[in-house]
Write a structure and sequence with these properties.
The chain is an all-alpha fold. It is built from 3 helices and no strands. The longest helix has 27 residues. It is globular and about 35 Å long.
């Protein structure tokens, strides 16, 4: 039997858990988004990366991975549309 995982591992990106769960560090969210990306769950990967960017907007690795995930998910036009909406 596996031990239960702490709620903070699932809280930032899981819609089933309450919104007021403790925040995970941006680096952990980056690893979680990579796991989602590798399992072809690109929407959840994008959500984790955007949450991590919200917590640490100066981390350029997060920005790069978010753009890459969105490019794979919706093509270059989707990334350009998102950047124009966010002021980037």
């Amino acid at each position: 039997m596996w031990p239960e995982r702490p709620a903070c591992l699932h809280a930032p990106c899981s819609p089933a858990l309450p919104r007021r769960a403790p925040a995970a560090p941006p680096q952990l969210l980056l690893y979680l988004s990579r796991a989602y990306y590798d399992s072809d769950n690109l929407l959840q990967a994008k959500k984790c990366l955007l949450r991590a960017i919200h917590l640490d907007p100066t981390n350029y690795a997060l920005w790069f991975n978010a753009a890459l995930t969105m490019q794979v998910r919706c093509g270059a036009r989707g990334v350009c549309a998102w950047l124009s909406r966010s002021g980037g």
